[in-house]
Amino acid sequence: MSDFSSLGLSDWLIQQCKQMGINKPTPVQQSCVPAILEGRDCMGCAKTGSGKTAAFVLPVLQKLSEDPYGIFCLVLTPTRELAYQIAEQFRVLGKPLGLRDCIVVGGMDMVAQALELSKKPHVVVATPGRLADHIRSSNTFSMNKIRFLILDEADRLLEQGCTDFTKDLEVILGAVPAQRQTLLFSATLTDTLQELKTIAMNRPFFWESKSEVRTVEELDQRYILTPEKVKDAYLVHLIQKFQDDHEDWSIMIFTSTCKNCQILNMMLREFKFPSVALHSMMKQKQRFANLAKFKSSVFKILIATDVASRGLDIPTVQVVINHNTPGLPKTYIHRVGRTARAGRNGVAITLVTQYDIHLVHAIEEQIQTKLKEFSVKESEVLNILTQVNVTRRECEIKLESTDFDEKKEINKRKQLILEGKDPDLEAKRKAELEKIRKDKKLFKAKIQKKQDMLKKKKHQQKNEIKVLQIKRKKKTVKANN
Ligand code: AMP
């Protein structure tokens, strides 16, 4: 493997890497840094944890040092936590430059952000929604001179998932100059490759990690087949086991909904486990505080929804537990990528019910690896089953007595208003659609019933004819005799 100087990076940057403990470039850095320094657009598809952030931070800093001005570089990323993480790498590596950065994410004071933007920071790291809001509402800053536009977790930014960024991206792309370098990075780029190619058009350099396997070798990937009702008992048992065996390990648990995340956190705390939650229904300050507590190992367990599945780099995470089997292989890849980072070992355990087996097959096909069974003493799990399930029920009741569902409804309405939709009208439309769907289903069932009856009748008639024919035959035989 070559060193950083052979990639064309300046001494001060190499020195800065050394200070961070980074001595040799990783493959994604080795391939992408020279192409970016050459002035080409770049699309990097690298395994999560393979050093892709530094692969764009280093060449941007080098170019910035040659011609420093603000706003020089804009980085877009799907989650607020990732924005802070990326800004941190810019800050540490760009320290000798006196780098000024600005983080623009939702849930934080908009006026303070606008003021910071007006001071022309070198680098802006943003989530698309909030930045688009600033562009729409303010003329105190300009991005028409940026040299670099970077889309981190680019496929997530472009896909139309639960948070659709496409409208905000349109606003942002309209505010940045056409003459720029565009860099796109993710662990799972290939699904949205065509759309991405329309964004990066300047002789794009495409780099994909050579290995067919989309997860790192250091990751031990396991599953536990369990009935739905025993899942929580397995979870509690696993945590107990890991905590007994490894005092210094941190565990990330992924679950599908904010509500389940909240309930699991309450439940684990009842069992005196040091856990915190992270999901999008929480206030932003609480989100950061919880993540900070987990990062500093004050709390060893983080229960999260997929807001935390991408990019977060927390070296102490040795275990990822999927409380639900992810519906999409790429969600699995991002989740398990929270451990076994930068050459370290890690284990990922997925709780699989009988209804999820097809999902596991899809995951295995995508990662080109078979998940192995994680062996557990079933008797130990069954011993705690009743206690765990009773505790969960108690936590559910406790949560129901708070206004969690109500808050969720309010958040949904807020989101619709922000999207320029009328929440009541949307609810009406949804109810109408639901009614149409129901009516259709009823109609289909009715027709099916009628068809079944007709079939039955026909069958009966056929039988009756047969009986008549036999009788007639018998009669004629008798008459002939
Ligand atoms: P990323 O894939 O950007 O999230 O990076 C994962 C981790 O790898 C981070 O903690 C980086 O500091 C670390 N890292 C980045 N580049 C290197 C390198 N060349 N050698 C060792 N560690 C690195």
Automatic annotation (TrEMBL):
It is found in: Nucleus, Nucleolus. One of its GO terms (biological process) is rRNA processing. It catalyses: ATP + H2O = ADP + phosphate + H(+). Residues 433-471 form a coiled coil. Residues 2-30 form the DEAD-box RNA helicase Q domain. Its main location: nucleus. One of its GO terms (molecular function) is ATP binding. This is Probable ATP-dependent RNA helicase DDX49.
